[in-house]
Structure prediction request, 377 residues.
Amino acid sequence: MSQKPIQKGIEVELFGGKPNGEVIPLSTSLKEQLSFITQEPDQRNFEYITQPTTSYEELQKEIIEPRIQIRKVLKDMGNLTLIPGSTIPLSFSKEFYFSKPGDPYHEYICNNYQTSIITSSLHISFGIDNNKDLFNLLCALRLDTSLFLALSASSCFHDGNITGYKSYRWHTFPKTPAFVPFFKTHDEFILWTKKQLEIKSMFNVRHLWSSIRPNGPDRPNKLNRIEVRICDFISNPVKILGIVALIECLIHNYLSTNKWPKVLSKTSKELEEVARSSDKQEELAAKDGLTAKLWDWRNDSENTAKQIISNLYTELSPTAKNLDIIKYFNQIQLILEEENEATQFLNHYGKTKSIQATIQYFIEKFAESDLSFSKIL
Prediction:
C-alpha cells in the first residue's frame, strides 16, 4: 500500500488564570471574544480545535496561532495568562462554574463527577475512511496508549499537592464506561454503544471517555477517524507533533504491511483480559511515566516505557523518513532525553520546594515558547 499523508487534527484543552498560577473560570468571557473557543462543562478549562490537515507545518500553525490570540485577550482581561499542566496545580474552589447552566449533559457531569473532569489535555484525531482499517487500527493502537501517556504526562501537581503521579489527570479522570472491550468490527461497536445507552452507562454517544475511540459525524453509525484521548497537555507544539508523528508512523506501518499484532487474534474471552491489561498499563504509565515498567507485547517481556519507546523510535525511523516527517518524529528522542513535563516540574520543585514557584517558572517558559514559535511561523 502506498503511503499517503493522513489528515490530522487536535483538540487542545487549556487552563487560564493569573501569573501566580491560580486557575480561574474564563471560558465564557473568552467565548464572547473568540468564536473558535469551545466550552467544557466547567469554565476553568476550555479548548480550541485545529482544522484537519495532512501537513505538519500547517498543524503547527493551527496549534500556535489560536493560542497567541487567546494570550492577547487574556492579557487585556487583566494581565491573565495560560497555565501549563493537565490538572489544576494550586488550591482551588470546589464550586462548579457552569459554562452552560441548564444544559442536561453538563448537569449530569457535575452531579456525577464534580471537579474531577476539570483537566487539560490533547485529543489527537487521524482520518481513516475505511471501516475495516479503522477498527484494526483502533485495536492495534490501544496496545500502545500507555506509551503516548508516558511521553505526554504533565500533571504531577493538583490542588496544592504533589500527587505521586506523573499523570494525575489520567489516574483520576472518570473513564466511562468503566470497562471498554476491543471492538474488532463496526457492527460490534454499534451494538455495544446501543447497549450502553440502553443500560444508561453512557449518557449519550459522546459519553465514551476512553483512552482511544472511534469518532465521526454520526456516532456510532458513521465514523471517519480515530481519536487518541489519553495524552496530557504538552506546552511545546513541536513535541506535540512528535507524538503525532509517532502515532502516524505506527498507522502507516500497519496499513502498508498489513501485519497486525498477533495478540489481537485471541478469542473474545482472551481479548477481554488483554483489554483489562491495557487499562492497567495506562495506570502504570499514569503513575510513573517514562520509568513505568510495562508489558512489551511485541516480545512478551517487561521493560520501561522509555526503552519500549526507544525501540519503537529505531524501528519506525525509516517510515518517518519515507513520509518526510523525520524532523518532527525526532522530537520523540528529545522527549526521552529531556523527560516529560511532569518530570521537569518535579525536578524544578526539588530546587524550589514550592509548587507555586515551580508553576510560575513554567508559566513564564510557556509564554516565552509560544512567542518564540509565533515568530517563526
In short: The two ends are 33 Å apart (CA to CA). The chain has one domain: 8-376.
